[in-house]
Automatic annotation (TrEMBL), chains A, B:
This protein's record includes keyword Calcium: no
Binding site for NAD(+): G283, S284, A285, P286, D287, I288, A289, G290, Q291, Q292, K293, A294, D295
Protein name, UniProt field: 3-isopropylmalate dehydrogenase
Domain annotation Isopropylmalate dehydrogenase-like: ranges: 6-343
Source species: Microbacterium bandirmense
Length: 349, 349
């Protein structure tokens, strides 16, 4: 009997739908003879759905998604400043809600400069690192509020919450990843200013480091890390960092490796208690939606991360190789579908 | 009777001392015939002083510094990981303490790509923007703590505190600066995640914007801002942002404009209640201290900011021009003193 993977697909808004269409074609093709059947359930979620129904993510949606083995997501979010979305906060109410409810404590974001990929650096060197971003704590917890809101006496606070439990599990994941890679781990934080949050990160990394004597451990303040990302990105192998610093570093890392049109990510629940979710780092870019201008590569590489996560390593490697070959041979602007076609052709070659 | 400016000079640690020596030569030369006399008081503060006396910044030091008109600071901080400095936290106890006690609510950081300056971008375009970083609030307030510290049940919190009072004054400063420049202001924050801190920033910027109808206002999430800093830095004129995002963006901005060896900053109390403080963005770099390897340009440009702040606009412009001429003619590695010599010669030419 063949293995069945129940996959929830959330194309989302804007270019999300276009890129996910191509990602699905690649997924279908590469798994056709794999002995694994993907049962896909589409979920209509995002700004468009909110505008139609007023729902962001209902309990029923969440329960339905939870019953799947994995999730493929395009991008969610409406036109910035759309007054009808003012109180929706699709990002917190949908994307972050999924990450928190499904305990995606590892936000995995590989950065690799592929041969032929355009990039802003004149001398990038070899870039091949992975950011392991904590996904369920830090300044992202939504633990804030304000008093005298809207008056000249307003005070608005946001609290970053960091636990030994939460940090240790993601740090362990990062060390295990470093063991399988070039055995170098860099903690990025701002320990000199965020003294308490910084101290717990430092302490946990030091503790886990003692169990991995062969991994070289390094520390950088987040400000210094951004400098190295543009002046010496080759120095990085595995970066482990908190939710907010990881958000910032991975957009910058995406930019230096050819743009976030190429950057894939996995929101992973390593315990397997909940389905993990794979998505391009880019947003829904409503300004170019429906114009076949979006690069589906990030979504396709997210399929590779999904396959890898499911243990389908050969299939993951085939997708990765097809994308690399496609990037290496780029010589003109192509439409979303054309890039999908090209990757498919390379996959079957 | 000639005007007297009482200047507190804090060379600090590591390369701080070397670069301040050159900055002082330039200051002395450019003000020699200005009719303004600088009465300089050196203050021995920093990691070295802490190691000798156990003092970081005593009440007496602070009172003495407060009685000056302005401060020139090199860099403070010891060798990273030095166990004797473990509990000192020179950054919080000295640098941030000065910024907070002297109400340096504008942290002014110009970023300009000078002709001839090296940079990591292959096609940087014209870069000329100023980051107006809030200096006394946000995640920098030191409002954190932890429970069950060091145990597997530790929880460590850090609270970002944001007030309408604190934001409005820095936002007003930024708009006034934009009025004198290219009339473009970009707010950088993370409003989609830090909902409360983001909302107050947005609200204050919207309010002040209505008084400056000729300034074009723009908003970027901090992650997207880092992308534009490496792909399209010319788009920026004035960036206004919170303390932590400003810290991150200005290191990155320094890197794309030739390295933080060229990046100057002013910690400004625009009300004039307390002395403002001028310092290079770089740190004390103990690894290269005493080797004549440090570039004093950032410290010298900090002197230009100081002169400008004191209303000595001609003198400021002369320093700026001498530095630009020096950078344009760089053709080999030079020592700290040689760069100082060259700028001095250009100043007198
Ligand atoms: C859309 C936003 C909430 C999200 C984040 O900040 O995590 C995005 O920037 C990302 O990196 O996936
Ligand atoms: C040394 C550190 C406390 C400081 C900061 O974070 O503000 C530095 O990075 C800076 O930018 O001046």
């Amino acid at each position: 009997m063949s293995r069945v993977v129940k996959l929830a697909v959330i194309p989302g808004d804007g270019i999300g739908r276009e890129v996910i269409a191509q990602a699905e074609r690649v997924l279908d093709a590469v798994t056709a003879d794999s002995g694994v059947t993907f049962e896909k359930t589409p979920f209509s979620l995002g700004a468009d759905r909110f505008l139609q129904t007023g729902d962001t993510l209902s309990d029923d949606d969440l329960a339905a998604i939870r019953s799947h083995d994995a999730i493929l997501l395009g991008a969610v979010g409406g036109v910035p400043g759309d007054p009808r979305l003012k109180d929706a906060n699709i990002e917190r109410g949908l994307l972050l809600k999924l990450r928190f409810e499904l305990d995606h404590y590892v936000n995995l974001r590989p950065s690799k400069l592929f041969t032929g990929a355009p990039g802003p650096l004149s001398d990038p060197g070899e870039i091949d690192f992975v950011v392991v971003r904590e996904g369920t704590e830090g300044p992202y917890v939504g633990n804030g509020g304000s008093i005298r809101t809207g008056t000249p006496h307003e005070v608005a606070n946001e609290t970053s919450v960091n636990t030994a439990f939460g940090i240790e599990r993601v740090v362990r994941y990062a060390f295990e990843l470093a063991e399988r890679r070039r055995k170098k781990l860099t903690l990025v934080h701002k320990t000199n200013v965020l003294v308490h949050a910084g101290a717990i990160w430092k302490r946990v990394v030091d503790t886990v480091a003692s169990e991995h004597p062969d991994v070289a451990v390094d520390y950088l303040h987040v400000d210094a890390a951004t400098i190295f990302l543009v002046t010496d990105p080759s120095r990085f192998d595995v970066i482990v960092t908190d939710n907010l610093f990881g958000d910032i570093l991975t957009d910058l890392a995406g930019a230096v490796t050819g743009g976030i049109g190429l950057a894939a990510s996995g929101n992973i629940n390593p315990d397997g208690t909940f389905p993990s979710m794979f998505e391009p780092v880019h947003g829904s870019a409503p300004d170019i939606a429906g114009q076949q201008k979006a690069d589906p590569t990030a979504a396709i590489l997210s399929v590779a991360l999904l396959l890898d996560h499911l243990g389908l390593r050969d299939e993951a490697a085939r997708v990765q190789r097809a994308v690399e070959a496609d990037i290496a041979s780029r010589d003109r602007a192509r439409s979303t579908d054309e890039i999908g076609d090209a990757v498919l052709a390379l996959l079957q070659a």
